[in-house]
């Protein structure tokens, strides 16, 4: 086969090219020809096809994502915003924290172990590329029905992949979610979050500047795995062609990644890089074009110098390969020797593959012949933008009219008791310890809180006890009923979870998981959810710092529930003041904070007891969320509360059961005046938390809530070895523990 | 004067910085040691920390055992220098034949991370003198290849010579024979165990308890008194 050089492409304008097979539309292909003034070479076509894929270009979502910037609240803490590998937030004492959540949904369905493993690897390199030491990971996961045979294929593979990769990197896994719903049956959601810490002066950006600077590719050799992963896998719905796409999933080597982390951190320490970018989706195509596009000049790359695992790879394949554990650095010539020396120390292969030029083109050569000559911005940042049509689906009104508040309710204490047991044992509400115990939560020796606490918390300075907390939340059922409110509720819950542990919420990252953007109904859900999230972030003063969009999560015509997953990062000045969920001290008083209303739309009760989804989700009151957070943070700082748990799916009883089991104590609860037992126990009204207050702090705590105007209701006391809802029923801790802890192992072990 | 305790970093070691912190918290000086060196930098004792050295490829600990640094450590350990192997470090010690037996994949085949109760069976080793034989402690356990095995004769010998240093209590988390969590050599200077004392040295962090600090105070007292 002859090499398709730029010269050859100019001379043979009419050659048929496989643009459709590479996932490009006809008008996109025409635009490439227009940009170049000729047909693209095979290598150029490969680059444009992966970089203009939905996954890399955000072509369907861009017009909506703009709101995160336009509505961004004033926030002095934001050091680096959307657009870089990850956002960076100032947490004080000279420290900066970077965090981001990303999806690896499609690969994880095809090849659960490798898909999930490389999802962790990818997000960790994003964080590393900002200049930070990765310090923790979290994994929000969603699967089909817990008892479906395919879930037993997908879930254990995903969990083993996350553990197998993350544990080997030495990153504590401190939280996340596991949710089951039929809607994810053919489209599991495997999102991965990483947090990194650095000093302000260590922030690095992805840009190639300074003519004559060298382009160094380091890390693993390039192989044939993951070719076209972004265009083939992540930008298409699944039909019946699953197995044929297997080679598109990358294969991870966590040992190599661990070396890459330590090697890169040592390189940062000696200040050896002018710009850096990890190789993830779209591999070298992405790294070279993004670095060149963000820089001031051009770039020239000798592609045949790239170290290969398979010597037969074509230049197109090398450009598209998504082989893992690779980074690309821009290094000043006099620093190259030291750079290579550090790589050698860590047994990391490093190769100078090119240099920054004073031109404005990205030029790639293959054994001396030019195969790419493009303006880098047209590849990396000026891809197509679509204003996809969107329309409120016609079924939305009927869905909302199907009111969950009208479902038959338990008529007696005995029936209430039976439903409580059923709910705490249901897969979504049951303990996930069987899963999270497969992740190392202790490594690095800084873990303050981890699953099943409300947020994961990591100490970042052992001398001052400064720490950060992160929580991720999302409720696809709420979002299906009302995507605008659903996205806000996801934010509100994550925000509340961070505050419940005593940390002040600072910033947001999001992973927006939706169906096909080509369906106007899905596009409406997406538009509503992004608008809701942007509005809520503005009100709460927590900017979106970055994130990821995953579209085409659907099988045939059926899309998943719209599932915006929101991560909130908070800071705590002294981690020894953190508030855990466990009820430990008998005699401490239990208080319910916030208002409880009859809100059952999308609730765990409606799902578990009635198999129902309809009505409206709980009302959103962001000012209330902010007030609740302030009270929880003050109470933690001033030692007024010993435990706290946010109320969300499953309502008050779910939270009390979890806190009691965690602490090994019982509780006596009294239904407050004005509420019936059912609403008291199962309502999912937002803006609420339950706290345990030592008797010595009772007056001070009540006074604080009263003065700030937060409704507070005394609902009981920590006592005994049963949960006793007075006048209704009692359940022993032993019975609750069995119900809560045996479900997941029974289904999946 | 304090003791100098070396902490080894192999490629893929994870708990080296945590172990250095634990050493410092106990009051000793932590000295980083690099796998490619032969020089032990005049340390008085060595800790082989946990992790996945060389990715655990081939077999956990099997490649590290041949590193230049291990050559020196093996010689010194035979001459009486105190050596503690934690998790992957324990695996390296059995691969080096400084301790008998071997570690297989957990019987349930999963990685397991839990707060594990142990009984300290021997307080006569260099690393356990600050405990009392029979004392119960809780420290994190986290591994996938943690099932201790040896032939019956070796197990009987270990028991008879009081060389079972730690035993799992309440739950045997991985199928280890005779609930063995850690052992010592005949002289008591070399100790290996699967659970992680270095992750239980500060109140409020990790498990929240400090049950693991005794390993590091034990060795410090021994070395400084000498």
From TrEMBL, chain A:
<keyword id="KW-0436">Ligase</keyword>
<protein>
    <recommendedName>
        <fullName>Phosphoribosylformylglycinamidine synthase subunit PurL</fullName>
        <ecNumber>6.3.5.3</ecNumber>
    </recommendedName>
</protein>
<dbReference type="GO" id="GO:0005737">
    <property type="term" value="C:cytoplasm"/>
</dbReference>
<keyword id="KW-0067">ATP-binding</keyword>
<feature type="binding site">
    <location>
        <position position="550"/>
    </location>
    <ligand>
        <name>substrate</name>
    </ligand>
</feature>
<comment type="function">
    <text>Part of the phosphoribosylformylglycinamidine synthase complex involved in the purines biosynthetic pathway. Catalyzes the ATP-dependent conversion of formylglycinamide ribonucleotide (FGAR) and glutamine to yield formylglycinamidine ribonucleotide (FGAM) and glutamate. The FGAM synthase complex is composed of three subunits. PurQ produces an ammonia molecule by converting glutamine to glutamate. PurL transfers the ammonia molecule to FGAR to form FGAM in an ATP-dependent manner.</text>
</comment>
<dbReference type="GO" id="GO:0004642">
    <property type="term" value="F:phosphoribosylformylglycinamidine synthase activity"/>
</dbReference>
<keyword id="KW-0460">Magnesium</keyword>
<keyword id="KW-0547">Nucleotide-binding</keyword>
<dbReference type="GO" id="GO:0006189">
    <property type="term" value="P:'de novo' IMP biosynthetic process"/>
</dbReference>
<feature type="domain" description="Phosphoribosylformylglycinamidine synthase linker">
    <location>
        <begin position="20"/>
        <end position="59"/>
    </location>
</feature>
<dbReference type="InterPro" id="IPR036676">
    <property type="entry name" value="PurM-like_C_sf"/>
</dbReference>
<feature type="domain" description="PurM-like C-terminal">
    <location>
        <begin position="211"/>
        <end position="366"/>
    </location>
</feature>
<dbReference type="Pfam" id="PF02769">
    <property type="entry name" value="AIRS_C"/>
</dbReference>
<feature type="binding site">
    <location>
        <position position="278"/>
    </location>
    <ligand>
        <name>Mg(2+) 2</name>
    </ligand>
</feature>
<feature type="binding site">
    <location>
        <position position="548"/>
    </location>
    <ligand>
        <name>Mg(2+) 1</name>
    </ligand>
</feature>
<keyword id="KW-0658">Purine biosynthesis</keyword>
<feature type="binding site">
    <location>
        <begin position="103"/>
        <end position="106"/>
    </location>
    <ligand>
        <name>substrate</name>
    </ligand>
</feature>
<dbReference type="InterPro" id="IPR010918">
    <property type="entry name" value="PurM-like_C_dom"/>
</dbReference>
<feature type="binding site">
    <location>
        <position position="547"/>
    </location>
    <ligand>
        <name>ATP</name>
    </ligand>
</feature>
<dbReference type="InterPro" id="IPR010074">
    <property type="entry name" value="PRibForGlyAmidine_synth_PurL"/>
</dbReference>
<keyword id="KW-0963">Cytoplasm</keyword>
Automatic annotation (TrEMBL), chain B:
<keyword id="KW-0315">Glutamine amidotransferase</keyword>
<dbReference type="GO" id="GO:0006189">
    <property type="term" value="P:'de novo' IMP biosynthetic process"/>
</dbReference>
<keyword id="KW-0658">Purine biosynthesis</keyword>
<dbReference type="InterPro" id="IPR010075">
    <property type="entry name" value="PRibForGlyAmidine_synth_PurQ"/>
</dbReference>
<keyword id="KW-0067">ATP-binding</keyword>
<dbReference type="GO" id="GO:0004359">
    <property type="term" value="F:glutaminase activity"/>
</dbReference>
<feature type="active site">
    <location>
        <position position="198"/>
    </location>
</feature>
<dbReference type="GO" id="GO:0005524">
    <property type="term" value="F:ATP binding"/>
</dbReference>
<feature type="active site">
    <location>
        <position position="196"/>
    </location>
</feature>
<comment type="pathway">
    <text>Purine metabolism; IMP biosynthesis via de novo pathway; 5-amino-1-(5-phospho-D-ribosyl)imidazole from N(2)-formyl-N(1)-(5-phospho-D-ribosyl)glycinamide: step 1/2.</text>
</comment>
<keyword id="KW-0963">Cytoplasm</keyword>
<keyword id="KW-0547">Nucleotide-binding</keyword>
<feature type="active site" description="Nucleophile">
    <location>
        <position position="87"/>
    </location>
</feature>
<dbReference type="InterPro" id="IPR029062">
    <property type="entry name" value="Class_I_gatase-like"/>
</dbReference>
<protein>
    <recommendedName>
        <fullName>Phosphoribosylformylglycinamidine synthase subunit PurQ</fullName>
        <ecNumber>6.3.5.3</ecNumber>
        <ecNumber>3.5.1.2</ecNumber>
    </recommendedName>
</protein>
<comment type="subunit">
    <text>Part of the FGAM synthase complex composed of 1 PurL, 1 PurQ and 2 PurS subunits.</text>
</comment>
<dbReference type="GO" id="GO:0004642">
    <property type="term" value="F:phosphoribosylformylglycinamidine synthase activity"/>
</dbReference>
<keyword id="KW-0436">Ligase</keyword>
<comment type="function">
    <text>Part of the phosphoribosylformylglycinamidine synthase complex involved in the purines biosynthetic pathway. Catalyzes the ATP-dependent conversion of formylglycinamide ribonucleotide (FGAR) and glutamine to yield formylglycinamidine ribonucleotide (FGAM) and glutamate. The FGAM synthase complex is composed of three subunits. PurQ produces an ammonia molecule by converting glutamine to glutamate. PurL transfers the ammonia molecule to FGAR to form FGAM in an ATP-dependent manner.</text>
</comment>
<dbReference type="GO" id="GO:0005737">
    <property type="term" value="C:cytoplasm"/>
</dbReference>
<keyword id="KW-0378">Hydrolase</keyword>
<dbReference type="Pfam" id="PF13507">
    <property type="entry name" value="GATase_5"/>
</dbReference>
């Amino acid at each position: 086969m002859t090499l398709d050089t730029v010269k050859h492409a100019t001379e043979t304008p009419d050659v048929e090219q496989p643009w459709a097979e590479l996932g490009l539309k006809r008008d996109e292909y025409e635009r490439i020809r227009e940009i170049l003034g000729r047909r693209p070479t095979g290598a150029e076509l490969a680059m444009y096809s992966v970089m203009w894929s939905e996954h890399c270009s955000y072509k369907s979502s861009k017009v909506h994502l703009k709101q995160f910037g336009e509505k961004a609240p004033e926030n002095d803490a934001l050091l680096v915003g959307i657009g870089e590998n990850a956002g960076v937030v100032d947490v004080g004492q000279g420290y900066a924290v970077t965090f981001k959540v990303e999806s690896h949904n499609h690969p994880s369905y095809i090849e659960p172990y490798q898909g999930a493993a490389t999802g962790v690897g990818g997000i960790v390199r994003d964080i590393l590329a900002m200049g930070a030491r990765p310090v923790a990971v979290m994994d929000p996961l969603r699967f089909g029905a817990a008892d479906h045979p395919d879930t037993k294929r997908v879930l254990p593979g995903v969990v083993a992949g996350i553990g197998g990769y993350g544990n080997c990197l030495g990153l504590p896994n401190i939280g996340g979610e596991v949710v089951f719903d039929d809607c994810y049956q053919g489209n599991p959601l495997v999102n991965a979050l990483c947090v990194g810490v650095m000093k302000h002066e260590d922030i690095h950006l992805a840009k190639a500047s300074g003519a004559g600077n060298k382009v160094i590719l380091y890390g693993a050799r390039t192989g044939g795995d993951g070719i076209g992963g972004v265009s083939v896998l992540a930008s298409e719905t699944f039909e019946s062609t699953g197995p044929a796409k297997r080679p598109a999933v990358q294969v991870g080597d966590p040992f190599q990644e661990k070396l890459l982390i330590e090697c890169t951190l040592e390189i940062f320490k000696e200040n050896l890089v002018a710009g850096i970018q990890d190789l993830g989706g779209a591999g070298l195509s992405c790294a070279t074009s993004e670095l060149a596009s963000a820089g001031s000049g051009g770039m020239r790359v000798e592609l045949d110098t790239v170290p290969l695992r398979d010597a037969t790879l074509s230049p197109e394949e090398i450009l598209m390969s998504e082989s893992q554990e690779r980074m690309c650095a821009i290094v000043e010539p006099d620093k190259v020797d030291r750079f290579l020396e550090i790589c050698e120390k860590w047994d990391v292969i490093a190769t100078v593959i090119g240099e920054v030029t004073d031109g404005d083109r990205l030029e790639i050569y293959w054994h001396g012949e030019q195969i790419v000559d493009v303006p880098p911005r047209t590849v990396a940042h000026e891809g197509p933008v679509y204003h996809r049509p969107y329309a409120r689906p016609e079924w939305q009104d009927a869905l909302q009219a199907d009111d969950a508040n009208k479902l038959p309710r338990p008529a007696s204490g005995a029936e209430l008791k039976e439903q409580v047991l059923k709910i705490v044992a249901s897969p979504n509400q049951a303990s996930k310890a069987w899963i999270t115990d497969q992740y190392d939560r202790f490594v690095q020796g800084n873990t303050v809180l981890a699953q099943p606490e409300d947020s994961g918390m990591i100490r970042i300075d052992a001398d001052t006890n400064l720490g950060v907390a992160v929580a991720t939340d999302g409720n696809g059922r709420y979002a299906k009923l009302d995507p605008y409110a659903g996205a806000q509720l996801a934010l509100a819950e994550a925000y509340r979870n961070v505050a419940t542990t005593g940390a002040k919420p600072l910033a947001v990252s999001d992973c927006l998981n939706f169906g096909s953007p080509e369906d106007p109904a899905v596009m409406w859900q997406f538009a509503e959810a992004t608008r809701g999230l942007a509005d809520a972030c503005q009100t709460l003063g927590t900017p979106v710092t970055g994130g990821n969009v995953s579209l085409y999560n659907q099988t045939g015509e059926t899309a998943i529930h719209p599932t915006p997953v929101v991560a909130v990062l908070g800071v705590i000045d002294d981690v020894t003041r953190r508030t855990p969920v466990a009820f430990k001290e008998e005699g401490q008083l239990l208080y319910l904070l916030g208002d409880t209303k009859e809100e059952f739309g999308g609730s765990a009760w409606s799902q578990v007891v009635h198999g129902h989804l309809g009505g409206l989700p709980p009302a959103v009151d962001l000012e209330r969320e902010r007030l609740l957070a302030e009270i929880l943070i003050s109470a933690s700082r001033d030692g007024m509360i010993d435990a706290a748990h946010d109320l969300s799916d499953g309502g008050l009883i779910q939270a009390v059961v979890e806190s009691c089991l965690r602490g090994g104590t019982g509780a006596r609860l009294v239904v407050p005046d004005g509420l019936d037992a059912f609403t008291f126990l199962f309502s999912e009204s937002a803006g609420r938390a339950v706290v345990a207050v030592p008797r010595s702090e009772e007056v001070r705590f009540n006074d604080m809530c009263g003065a700030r105007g937060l409704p507070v209701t005394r609902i009981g006391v920590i006592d005994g070895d049963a949960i006793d809802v007075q006048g209704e029923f009692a359940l022993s801790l032993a019975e609750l523990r069995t119900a809560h802890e045996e479900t997941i192992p029974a289904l999946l072990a | 004067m304090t003791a100098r305790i070396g902490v080894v970093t192999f490629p893929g070691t994870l708990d080296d910085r945590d172990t250095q912190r634990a050493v410092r918290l106990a009051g000793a000086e932590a000295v980083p040691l690099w796998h490619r060196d032969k020089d032990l930098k005049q340390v008085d004792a060595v800790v082989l920390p946990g992790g996945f050295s060389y990715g655990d490829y081939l077999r956990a600990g099997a490649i590290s055992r041949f590193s230049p640094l291990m050559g020196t450590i093996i010689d010194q350990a035979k001459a009486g220098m105190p050596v503690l192997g934690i998790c992957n470090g324990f695996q390296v010690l059995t691969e080096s034949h400084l301790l008998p037996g071997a570690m297989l994949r957990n019987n349930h085949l999963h990685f397991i991370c839990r707060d594990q109760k142990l009984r300290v069976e021997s307080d006569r080793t260099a690393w356990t003198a600050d405990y009392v034989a029979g004392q119960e402690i809780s420290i994190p356990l986290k591994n996938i290849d943690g099932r201790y095995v040896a032939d019956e004769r070796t197990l009987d010998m270990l028991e008879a010579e009081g060389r079972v240093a730690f035993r799992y209590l309440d739950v045997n988390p991985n199928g280890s024979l005779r609930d063995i969590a850690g052992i010592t050599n005949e002289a008591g200077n070399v100790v290996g165990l699967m659970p992680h004392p270095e992750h239980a040295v500060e109140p409020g962090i990790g498990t929240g308890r400090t049950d693991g600090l005794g390993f590091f105070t034990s060795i410090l007292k021994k070395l400084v008194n000498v």
